[in-house]
Amino acid sequence: MLLTITTTHQPATDLGYLLHKNPARAQSVALSFGQAHVFYPEATTARCTAALLLDVDPVGLVRGRKGADAPLEPYVNDRPYVASSFLSVAIGQVLGTALGGRSRERPEFADTPIPLVARIAALPCRGGEDLLRRLFEPLGYELEAAQHALDPRFPAWGESRYFTVTLRATTRLADLLRHLYVLVPVLDDAKHYFVGDDEVEKLLRRGEEWLAAHPERDLIVRRYLRHQRGLTRDALARLTAEEDPDAAAEARDAEEHEVEERIRLNDQRLGAVTAALRASGARRVVDLGCGEGQLLRLLLADSAFHEIVGLDVSHRSLEVARDRLRLDSLPPHQKRRIRLIHGSLMYRDARIAGYDAAAVVEVIEHLDPPRLKAFERVLFEFARPRTVVLTTPNREYNARFETLAGGAFRHRDHRFEWTRAEFRDWAERVAERFGYVVRFLPVGPEDPELGAPTQMGVFDLSRG
After folding, report:
1. Which neighbouring-strand residues pair with 451?
2. DSSP label at 385?
3. Do the Cβ atoms of 184 and 167 come closer than 8 Å?
4. Which of 61, 117, 200, 309 could form a disulfide with 286 if both were Cys (CB 3.0 to 4.6 A apart)?
5. Residue 285, class by beta-carbon neighbours within 10 Å (0-12 exposed, 13-18 middle, 19+ buried)?
6. Phi, psi of 232, deg, nearest 5
């Protein structure tokens, strides 16, 4: 059972600081089911690969069982050779510090996304390549899967359920390990140990930042907990409860609204976005991060838009949007035009693919930089609407808000606020990478020195 992790981050040998394993020597750890070995097949400043090799002892696993007629299966099986829950246990016990996102010598490095390539030599997948992609691609990975024949000597026997899988992403090592920790036994749909209440805690802890909004959340939870209905219901209930905004988040939204209310910036912003969508000729529009439905209400009132979809990660916001739009009492022809769906901008989602236009209004500034990278691919590579209308605050204009302290952001949940030059650099880079052209429009009263309070980029697919 072999897992390798490679980076080209320079100096690449700093990978050893994250794994807490010295690239200069091999290390072995005794586990209850065998031995785990960590070594580095290559370790240069340009490229470094760490390998985790598990030597599972199948005889040791069943030694001491009572009964003279023990079945042969415990002794002759695939467990020593394929990735399974044994690998998850090894990651937790041998690479536990890296899994927890800690590095004593390089604490800032542990929080830094770096280019990583993970390769699993043999991964059983009950669900085939389609399930592999449904689980890993929404998390931002580029995936290669080579399926193995049951027996290469007899092609007529067909393909096995085993794959050699390669995952590529620029991400934190801790995130990669957490994804593998949870998803490897999910793909195998089996565990070698008893599953009880403590497994719910482990799942929630390792899936804390990504599982709630994953499009295959229910399948992941069900398989990880060995299809135990009570445990599955408990885990899903807790995930759902944790994903809605709390009162503090609503208070922060109110603070931002108060800052901008004097110039009625939100009204101007929504009007500008609606006008840009109308000018694009779009008939089918998706509002990503629709919140409580303010833009959706304007789109629904405009007969130019035939199909309108609002997506948000918060169930609570979607419920408020449903009430404010009065969806239950709309006439049938109006009700057919609009749909609200729960989802995340971090994960690839077939439901938002192929629309004429997408609106992303005051959303990106709430994303951590590593998650912004995933969002770029989700929107511009996978969903790939013909037009994207995106707005974000202009940090330079903050000096004109009398109630805003110097250097403060407009919203306490903002991870960044860009200057006009920073927004232009980001937008032009994204447009070039994904085959769009972008133009920039000011929104709100324009200051001769500081520009407009809101920046808007309109991305159109290049016809070249």
Report:
1. 447
2. -
3. no
4. 309
5. buried
6. -65, -45
Output the six-digit token pair for 173: 């090592």
Q: Which residues is 339 bridged to in the sheet?
A: 309
Q: Can you give the C-alpha Rg of the chain in angstroms?
A: 25
Name, in order, each residue with C-beta under 8 angstroms of 246's C-beta and a sequence gap of 6 or more.
Answer: none
Residue 268's CB is within 10 A of a number of other CB atoms, namely 17
Binned at pLDDT 50, 70 and 90, residue 94 comes out as very high
- In the block, which residue shows the tokens 């004109």? 400
E strands, 266-312, where?
A: 284-288, 307-312
Token output for 159: 């393909």
What distance in Å separates the CA atoms of residue 217 and residue 220, rounded to the nearest whole number? 5
As to burial, measured by CB atoms within 10 angstroms (0-12 exposed, 13-18 middle, 19+ buried), residue 463 is exposed
The CA–CA distances, whole Å, from 456 to 63, 291, 361, 383, 441 equal 67, 19, 9, 20, 5
Q: How far apart are the first and last CA of the chain?
A: 47
The number of C-alpha atoms within 13 Å of 65 and in the hemisphere containing its C-beta is: 14
Query: Which tens digit of pLDDT belongs to each residue from 418-432?
Result: 999 999 999 999 999
The pTM is what? Answer: 0.61
Q: Which residues of 348-387 are buried (b: 16+ CB within 10 A; e: fewer)?
A: bbeebeebbbbbbbbbbbbbeebbbbbbbbbbbeebbbbb
Say how far apart CA 441 and CA 35 lie, in whole Å. 61
DSSP 451: B
**Cβ neighbours of residue 260 under 8 Å, at least 6 residues apart?**
266, 401, 410, 453
- Cα 101 to Cα 59, 145, 290, 366, distances in angstroms: 35, 27, 32, 22
How far apart are alpha carbons 106 and 243 in whole angstroms? Answer: 31
Amino acid code (one letter) for 448: P
Burial class (CB in 10 A: 0-12, 13-18, 19+), 281: exposed
The residue type of 191 is K
- 396: tokens are 């330079």
- Model confidence pLDDT, tens digit, residues 240-293: 764 444 444 444 455 444 444 554 788 899 999 999 999 999 999 999 999 999
Length of the chain equals 464
Q: Phi first, then psi: what are they for 329, rounded to 5°?
A: -110, 5
pLDDT digit string, tens, across residues 45-82: 999 999 999 998 876 666 655 544 455 555 567 777 88
What is the spatial distance between Cα 307 and Cα 53, in angstroms, rounded to a whole number?
52
* Percentage above 70 pLDDT, the chain: 90
Show the beta-strand stretches assigned E in 354-450: 357-361, 387-393, 436-443
